[in-house]
């Protein structure tokens, strides 16, 4: 305990030279017509250093008008945002290597955790005495944001009437710390403070924000009202949010502290969707033995949401599409998951926030873990295990293709010591900042964090783990009540080392090796196993092989549990894995003879009769499983004969085992498999997901046996048996979905039927007729639930039956084969009917559009994009738009259609819904029109330029989008310079460090270098071409009235530096700078933070370290040039524009070269 | 039948009247007249006489009789402004035209009723004086249509077919009459799709679709099933190896609804009004200045 709190204090040593104690955000003008906000913030800062001269704050896309200190002194300020354009100084570099490099530097240069920020406020000399006295500084900043491109989203539907009538609303959004996009703040989780929030909005609107609503007051003209919120719990700026709209308010009837908000007209479904939430509150109160940390909780459901849910202090912003009526089944599961997860993030995420980005795996992991234990109670253990297994599979898949996900790259044992030289060389994006990582990585990061948290639970037990959480919460609670001891607020933050110490002090177990294996290291364990039964010795000889040389695979050393189900029962054995090949000999407990017919005990104590005829007469082994309880991040291939898999499927009671058996049985087409699968499908006691999976596998297996077995009639028989009406089984019973397992199965069985093929590899006609009959006889009048998902599933089943057209000479109505005509008729009817009688979330339309695309793709219909383009427009429901985009992306890929590709990219750049922009890019990433090293007519100069511009400077306000573009660029071109580009002017690069000349990688035909994501980068990575003339930087000079505050000037190069220094000195010496002119005078600031800090941050980052070679060669250019006395335009030295990334081990000598430049620069920005 | 006899009689009266009119005209010195003129005068005369009769009947009723007497007629005529005294003189006048006596009509007997079928004879215990049974067809029910089949299969088939044809006709109609899209560019007659139009608030329709074909009250029997499932999975859950029969733990909308319903009743109104969002917005103090 003692140790722990000390640790917490230690970790709370702020990287910033000040401490934030309180902040006021006051938005006085919120204009929907102009999509703008106007207001001011006031930060109460306590200087920690007596020589504090500059305050660095975060602010993006805000126009800052005026900064005053303690209401008395006007302060001059500089606003520069290097993330506006990542690689600004260079016009020719077009490789991701360079980009991610610059991206990291740019993001790092405004990272508040490195004491940086976009907005630099200089404390006037007159006010310096306050700093010296270490008294409170009040920094007020007046600002406005107009037409925000990120961080804030305005939804303004067209129509008549006032904005409130039209349902216009706005809300904040963004990835991780994005609050800087709408008000100046210290945008990091590690700087909690108390808040006063005031929002003046139209009187028809409601402003929902963090904290407690203390007062609502009309403005004197009675046209607007002001909402006053107080947040007395110290909270970090990224957890502050706002939603304004004409919301309908629903106070939770069970817990009046909880309020739900939705858009007008949706209150009835809001009431239903949120009715369960109080159960979650009660559950967590019991489980964590702690009350909900805040005094209130608000859920706001908004349209065009950025994510399905975003959790902030005391409130969460959720997508309105999560709402559902009581007739909807499927959506309920995911909606509840989202709402519960948003709630758990209140505890871990908002209330307890991560100390740094490296610690965010804890908040993500813990909140997801808590969410899942509630869902386990709500939806059952099978569902929980199924999800864990799915998560595990996703992690394995991702890590094997993309490389390991490292939850926390810092070695936790020596936290404060120097960074190790670990470099995740496999990724093309820096992982040191949430703003630079790819979206899929971010998602998987959360999943893995949860999985690892679950592993900790297995290691120490749930009770103890909950005790740790309780301890963290109670520490935070006591800290939050300390109003004046700002330093104790450090307990509101969670750090990896503190958490691990708590773990070991509570449990008494040492988790060091565990953490090393799964937290500070990426990658998974992979086992290929097989076994042989030795009859003489009655021993199972087990062999497990690992192959750590493969990407994303780590060698696992430690215990591994193997479970063998024998005739006499289930036995667990622990193997010690040490080498790449582990051999184990396990003596069987039972004799092989099955002379006496008796029941076989299973793992859970149940005893069953089995038909043992299929098994090997000599062996008592029924099946073997490796790591049954999923205690590792592992991927297991285990070889067993088919009958063992069949036994496992039939008799093992663990859903994971059943699913694994089904996956394996797809490779064993035999009648035995068929009968095992069909038994499982018909067995109503089996978990429904196993049954649906079995149905799918059945279709696969039946297709392999098509010559001897007619799969469709078997499936149809099963279907008739379960769902046929009593008097005539060929007609399906009227829908009755009150039995959910049966409902989920009836949705899946038709899809499986659609997959069945006959010997001509088309779907049998009987099968198609049966499906058409199902559609025809679908009757929902006596059902209490909506059948929209079922009808959509039936259309999907029809889609599954589609096979490529025989002749694709010309596609017209006359050439349609009768089967296609039937399908088309149904699809058209359903699609048209949806226009008149829409279904929930337009599920049927979505399926119909998919069907049309499949028909087009298989040559039954003329491929035509206009239909999808019309459905992809803004104004359609989001699911429809998504599926239309998906089809368009597919058309682009199949037909290399440049026009549509351009159209999609236009949309990706300009769509009004940020989620849609992200979605288009995600779809393109999933299904790229061409891949690395593929030649394609679409791969053009212009495309490279377009994407480059987009990620370089047009997506700066939405980092998710920027990372999406990077992902897409990577998918298309890999990490090196696109091959379609003309060669750069200079193909030769001098590498002074190695004293040799290398051919530029693009020039050299040898492409083997960079392309492979896992290959260690060598020094011949495409390098800088220093002679490239630099683009004249466009400096946006602000008028005295201070119009654009965003200067596009990220990094200084030497020539600009001198005037800057001059100005600074001048302004300090002679005249007090006025707020309007500071920009025009100052231009861009130096790299914020100064070089000394820079160097540290660079070397600390794993990716950068990798580039040492390149960087150092870059460094040497200025020296070389000056040595040669090169005349001509002053060469912008990279050592300046890119803060020297030189390895700390390198001799200081090199730095000396540039010392004269640094000196001047350091002076004004001296921070430490 | 009566209507035809009535009209016949009316026609006869009218004929006599027109003859009388014509005679009066001749007496008055007219040689000839148009048909319509006679017709009009007849009309006037007819209404005059009708009015006279009606008035006479009123007089008689006034004096408490049902049949008018000559005095009543005299009263009626004189009330209508005619002098009755000249009537006797006119009767004696020799030059007046004699109207020939009209042929009298012969009454027609009621036609014989058409007998269909055999009338049932009275049973032995029914006295003869009671009327006979009516024709059998007036009380015996004979089906005039084929009996419908109420076999489950046929009903389902018919219902489905009917619904489909309605849907198809409706969608086809709308597709033909409004904007449409086609799957076959240039060949737009077949498989027309109703054009999609962007909406201003697409989420409204999508999230609250018309529940046209959903039964109204949610089922109750799901509840018990739920409870048994719950206990099953709780038993098996802790060991990590579960009973497979726990299946999906259903999200039953009712269970939560019931509880909320109960709690709604429990929690009083004051609770909700304590919520800051429900509180009245305060009027500003006039001097308030930030």
UniProtKB/TrEMBL annotation, chain A:
Organism in which the protein naturally occurs: Holothuria leucospilota (Black long sea cucumber)
Region (Disordered): 1003-1168
Record's protein name: Transcription initiation factor TFIID subunit 2
Domain Transcription initiation factor TFIID subunit 2 TPR repeats, residue spans: 642-998
Biased composition (Low complexity): 1008-1023
Family of the protein in this entry: Belongs to the TAF2 family.
Pfam families in the record: TAF2_3rd, TPR_TAF2_C
GO molecular function, one term: RNA polymerase II general transcription initiation factor activity
Alphabetized UniProt keyword annotations: Nucleus, Transcription, Transcription regulation
Source species, domain of life: Eukaryota
Compositional bias of kind Basic residues: 1147-1161
Any one biological process term the GO annotation gives: RNA polymerase II preinitiation complex assembly
Lineage: Eukaryota, Metazoa, Echinodermata, Eleutherozoa, Echinozoa
Subcellular location(s) per record: Nucleus
Residue ranges occupied by any Transcription initiation factor TFIID subunit 2 Ig-like domain in the UniProt entry: 523-641
InterPro entries xrefs: Aminopeptidase_N-like_N_sf (IPR042097), ARM-type_fold (IPR016024), Ig-like_TAF2 (IPR057345), Peptidase_M4/M1_CTD_sf (IPR027268), TAF2 (IPR037813), TPR_TAF2_C (IPR057991)
GO CC terms of this entry: transcription factor TFIID complex
From TrEMBL, chain B:
Cross-referenced Gene3D superfamilies: Histone, subunit A (1.10.20.10)
GO biological process entries: transcription initiation at RNA polymerase II promoter
Region (Disordered) location: 204-290
GO MF entry, a single one: protein heterodimerization activity
Protein keywords: Nucleus, Transcription, Transcription regulation
Regions of compositional bias (Basic residues) in chain numbering: 280-290
Polar residues bias: start-end ranges: 232-245
Localization annotation: Nucleus
Primary subcellular site in the record, as a coarse category: nucleus
Domain of life: Eukaryota
Family indicated by similarity: Belongs to the TAF8 family.
Protein name as annotated: Transcription initiation factor TFIID subunit 8
Organism expressing this protein natively: Holothuria leucospilota
